[in-house]
Design a protein that fits this description.
The chain is mainly α. Helix content is 80%, strand content 0%. The chain is built from 4 helices and no strands. The protein is elongated, with a radius of gyration of 18 Å.
Length: 82
């Protein structure tokens, strides 16, 4: 059964991390060059880069899952995280 509250908490956590990252880029001193580069960047390419990063992360998750599922089955492993 899917625990929607658990999924909601994770989505909220990642949203909070994204907000903190944006605020850090906007307010921290010494990273003016990063602000300038992001300010002149095409939003489309930033979205593409973020999507590729997400797909890359999911690929690593899937690869590790395939390796460790033989040792610890997914059902048993997911019960540890709850």
């Amino acid at each position: 059964m899917v625990d929607t509250r658990h999924i909601g908490r994770r989505i909220a956590f990642f949203a909070a991390v994204a907000i903190v990252a944006v605020l850090a880029v906007l307010t921290l001193p010494g990273i003016g060059d990063v602000r300038e580069r992001l300010g002149s960047a095409e939003p489309w390419w930033l979205a593409v880069a973020a999507a590729f990063s997400l797909v890359s992360m999911l690929g690593f998750v899937r690869a590790l899952w395939a390796v460790f599922e033989r040792i610890v089955p997914w059902r048993r492993c997911s019960s540890w995280a709850a």
